[in-house]
Design goal:
Chain B: Belongs to the GcvH family. The complex is a heterodimer of chains A (381) and B (161). Chain A is of the alpha+beta class and 381 residues long. Chain A has 12 helices and 16 strands. Chain B has 161 residues and is α+β, with helices and mostly antiparallel strands. Chain B has a single domain, classed as RNA polymerase II/Efflux pump adaptor protein, barrel-sandwich hybrid domain (OB fold (Dihydrolipoamide Acetyltransferase, E2P), Beta Barrel). The termini of chain B are far apart. The chains are: A alpha+beta (381), B alpha+beta (161). Chains A and B meet through strand 10 of A and strand 4, strand 6 and strand 7 of B. Strand 10 of chain A pairs parallel with strand 7 of chain B, so a sheet runs across the interface.
């Protein structure tokens, strides 16, 4: 008997391979004729590419007579809402070290972890047809029509498994004429990675106006039935979408990087990947930390105000009366001003200087102050 | 009789005064209607934004109908001061528990002030959408743009439909 874990691994590999093969297959021309309903599935697993296409469809498509269901999956990434603070929602330095992408959506809502065990669904419709409940109910009907799972939509418009576990997080964007409602669907996500990625080291002592996430207990759909995976979900949800619209249609695999079909999409992707969008759009926040060293007999207070992801004001006060230490904290305060809260900028300022000309005690205090700053700023310098 | 006489006389005197006041008020009313754009009159867009004109400055907000549709506002993203906005251009975003909704500038001009009170209290947009929950102020580059907007009575009819 192959253990469940191994079966799931095999299924995951198969899914990736199938996605790759289908990438070269039929690339529908029906985008040019104007159907009333379309189901599009991305052949890319890059979060920036997929978000860029979603934004392209929202900005450019004429949805007066058309509704689109766009589905995709991503390699490991963390996606925050439009007005969230990435440093508070996830472990920014850890994500960098593990090669996990961080992205900021244009819709609101909370922070989510994606990997290939998560399906993203985006319903793009004209404003009069915007209805989140309808979309979520459609997906529940689709899934329960094929598998015997206890799935419901609760009052918060979350899809809940067995009355307890959240399997979906929802968010939307409303524009002049167009809207989209998108949500995740956990079928086989790596829960350990999810918990590691969403644990922020910077929460202590922080004041922030950014929107916060609501944490919930989660469970993967594949734990109820191991045949629930990306391909089968895309199939059943896609066909349910056409069925409930009362139309015939095919599920279309598309290349979201194709500029000939989606002119301008690369530009959107470039902006989505940039530091200014991901981090620079963070609402104002501040940190207020106090550190004590009994060994050195000193206390340090560090207050930083951040605006647009940069240090807007820094106040570093050590109760040590030694002039060289005071000089060090004054210099640090000055140099930190205007720096982006990122490794590249802060490494320059917080690098350990040559302290050989100082007495031992002074060296220790300065090194300790440096470490406290690194800890408070949490960028993993 | 004397008392009644005095009372009647007193009332007549009052009426006389009222008549004079009414005459004066009438003139003032006519003045008010001519220079309507100088006072706090609200003009509405089909996207449920309003602009209130006070001299050279327009104050922008969203309507009661809009705030009700949005649900509780949890974050307000406002334009920066000195931003040049065109009529219909995206000026900001209101995030509620339901969605992130774009706010469109009802007129063209330059942003002069943003309501920073909304940073700490975004819910003011729900609780006081016509007063404390204003979003931003701007110059009025083209006063004629106001002619294409709806007055309150017309807007109320519009949302009924």
């Amino acid at each position: 008997m192959i253990p469940l874990y191994t079966r799931l691994c095999f299924r995951r590999i198969l899914t990736s391979k199938e996605s790759f093969l289908l990438c070269n297959q039929r690339y529908s021309q029906s985008l040019k004729s104007n159907p009333s309903h379309q189901v599009l599935v991305s052949t890319s697993d890059d979060i920036y590419t997929n978000l860029a296409l979603e934004e392209w469809l929202y900005e450019k498509e004429n949805l007066t007579d058309k509704s689109i269901l766009f589905m995709w999956q991503n390699k490991p990434s963390v996606v925050i809402g439009r007005h969230q603070n990435p440093w508070l929602e996830c472990n920014v330095p850890r994500l960098r070290d593990c090669g996990i992408d961080l992205a900021r959506r244009i819709s609101g809502g909370g922070c989510v972890y994606h990997d290939l065990g998560n399906l993203n669904c985006s319903f793009l419709k004209a404003k009069p047809l915007y209805n989140r409940r309808q979309n979520l109910d459609l997906v529940v009907r689709a899934i329960t029509s094929r598998w015997d799972v206890d799935l419901q939509v609760n009052v918060r418009e979350d899809i809940v498994l067995e009355g307890l576990y959240k399997v979906s997080g929802t968010a939307s964007k409303l524009g002049k004429h167009n809207t989209f409602h998108h949500f995740t669907l956990l079928h086989d996500v790596n829960v350990e990675n999810l918990e590691m990625a969403l644990e922020s080291p910077m929460k202590m002592g922080v004041q922030s106006k950014a929107t916060e996430s609501t944490r919930s207990r989660i469970k993967n759909l594949s734990e109820c039935d191991f045949t629930i995976d990306f391909m089968s979900l895309v199939d059943v949800i896609g066909h349910q979408f056409y069925k409930e619209a009362g139309v015939q249609g095919e599920i279309e695999w598309i290349n979201p990087k194709d500029e000939s079909v989606f002119p301008g999409v690369s530009e959107i992707r470039k902006l989505a990947e940039g530091w200014e969008w991901k981090f620079g759009k963070t609402p104002k926040f501040s940190t207020n930390r106090t550190f004590t060293s009994d060994k050195l007999g000193t206390e340090l207070s560090l207050i930083c105000n951040f605006e647009k992801g940069r240090i807007h004001r820094a106040e570093i006060v050590c109760d040590c009366s030694i002039p060289t230490v005071k000089e060090y904290t004054d210099t640090l305060q000055r140099e930190l001003l205007g720096q982006r809260l990122c490794r590249e900028d802060l490494n320059q300022v917080l690098k350990v200087h040559d302290l050989s000309h100082l007495v031992r005690h002074e060296q220790l205090v300065i090194e300790w102050i440096n470490q406290c700053c690194v800890q408070a700023l949490c960028t993993g310098v | 009789h004397e008392v009644i006489g005095r009372c009647i006389f007193g009332q007549l005197n009052k009426l006389q005064k009222c008549k004079t006041i009414a005459k004066v008020t009438n003139i003032q009313c006519r003045n008010i209607s001519i220079s309507q754009r100088l006072l706090g009159v609200k003009y509405f867009t089909e996207k449920h934004e309003w602009v209130e004109v006070n001299g050279e400055v327009g104050t922008i907000g969203i309507s009661e109908f809009a705030q009700d549709q949005l649900g509780e506002v949890v974050y307000v993203q406002l334009p920066e001061i000195d931003t040049e906005l065109e009529l219909g251009q995206e000026a900001g975003v209101l995030e509620s528990v339901k969605a992130a909704s774009e706010v469109y500038s009802p007129i063209s001009g330059v942003v002069t002030e943003a309501n920073t009170a909304l940073e700490d209290a975004p819910k003011l947009v729900n609780d006081s959408c016509y007063e404390k929950g204003w979003l931003y102020k701007m110059t009025i580059r083209e006063p004629s743009e106001l002619d294409h907007l709806m007055k309150e009575e017309d807007y109320l009819k519009f949302i009924k439909d």
